[in-house]
Amino acid sequence: MNTIFLDTNIIIDFLADREPFSEDAAKLFDFSLKGKSKIYVSALSYNNIYYILRRQFSHIETIKMLTALNEWTIMLEASKDIVNKSLQSDFTDFEDAIQYYSALTNQNIECIVTRNTKDYKKSVLPVMTPREVLKCL
Q: Class of the 3-136 domain?
């Protein structure tokens, strides 16, 4: 698994140092920073991450973290087509639907990484936890 798509929860685990999940999330980013994998994220994630991190950090600190995230990852757009597909999907979590359809726009993505694997039951891409992906890396 060299090309992965990260669900927002994994990114927040890493940036907010949410224990016990942050260690595995940090390892995923470490692999990417060492050039051993590529991490894709949805543009949608940025506003959700900002909203959550802003509870813990200042605006300036949060923007610095998002700027670093933008350097460490490859951002996928959340287009009108993606939103339309998400609206018509049977996902119970709309945010997950947008992330899923964003991931499908890039044929290089090998899996979706999330702690909520049950939210992606009908995914055509493999869905794995960070720990499962780390075993493959």
A: alpha beta
